[in-house]
Fold Addiction module antidote protein.
Amino acid sequence: MHAITGKTTGAAASVPFDPARFLRADDLAGFLAEALADGDHRALPIALRTAADVLGMAELARRTGLSRETLYRTLSDKGNPRLDTLGAILGAFGLRLTVAPTPRKPARAKTRALA
């Protein structure tokens, strides 16, 4: 099962998993950071949708000044949020977007061919 989307890749799950039931406000930053670290750009809107489900879409709309329809569309699996929309949503959760350098992979040691 994918950690962010909750979708299974094999046989159908017997009980649907709802990550919103287990997500607490103090876990939100780590949850969203993990969605970004996953490398799949589609994971962030889905993770934000999970967070929105915890708060409630009407409350998120009130806090951001965006319509519920815009939020549902933006936070869908086909969503592609604009930077200002992303900033408004993160701000509603008391978070902000930051930029950090990508960790470098250790250089491989060169080996000589044995003669």
User: Anything to note?
Assistant: The mean pLDDT is 82. The CA atoms of residues 4 and 34 lie 8 Å apart. Helices lie at 28-37, 43-55, 57-64, 68-74, 83-92.
